[in-house]
Amino acid sequence: LQVAWTFSTGVLRGHEGGPLIIGNMMYVHTPFPNIVYALDLNQDGRIIWKYEPKQDPNVIPVMCCDTVKRGVAYGDGKIFLHQADTTLVALDAKTGKRIWTPNVGAPVVNAPVANGGRVFVSSVDNHFHAFAASDGHDLWDQQGISESASILESTSAAVAGEYVIVPYTSGELYAIRVTNGLVAWSDTLTRSGGVTALSELDD
Question: DSSP secondary-structure letter at 41?
């Protein structure tokens, strides 16, 4: 094995989200200022487009977990990015043009999840949102317990059939119906101030 080509984003901070590959395109994002690059893998990583949002650097002190982001998502021909300024952005996957951008209201560290015409994001205050991938309107939201047990802090949600499984920083897991936001079941791994996650499992 040998290196075929390399690419630098120009941002010298932690890059904790992996690249996203759709067909011959690779989408790479950076920590603050949350630049997104679309690279053509058939042309040695040639930049097809670049999205660089203009954000107030004063948002950095209130961000969770340094300035990192943990990925972008793809669905319905769009790339979904959550910016440091708490806005969720939909970009045209072919051109990088911004299509819509609602405000989540709180920082998001984990990657968005796109599935079935919906985009799911979970903020650091344990507020889970479902947006329409078509135009970004808020479909429903669900509020978890605001406490943190530091056990599921950066985990993205997962869609399984008609449910989305939501991990909260409180150690809770919720199975929520994707169509209406109603809770099907929930479980608790641990609670802040109680037993630790390991002791809970050992019991």
Answer: G
* Helices of type H across the chain: 197-202
What Å distances lie between residue 119 and 26, 30, 38, CA to CA? 20, 20, 20
Per DSSP, 165 falls in state E
* pTM for the predicted model, two decimal places: 0.84
By the 8 A CB rule, do 92 and 86 touch? Answer: no
Residue with tokens 């499992």: 201
Determine the straight-line distance between the first and last CA of the chain, rounded to whole angstroms: 47
CA distance 104 to 93: 22
Helix (H) or strand (E) holding 92: strand 88-92
Please write the tens of the pLDDT for every residue from 30-51: 988 889 999 999 999 999 999 9
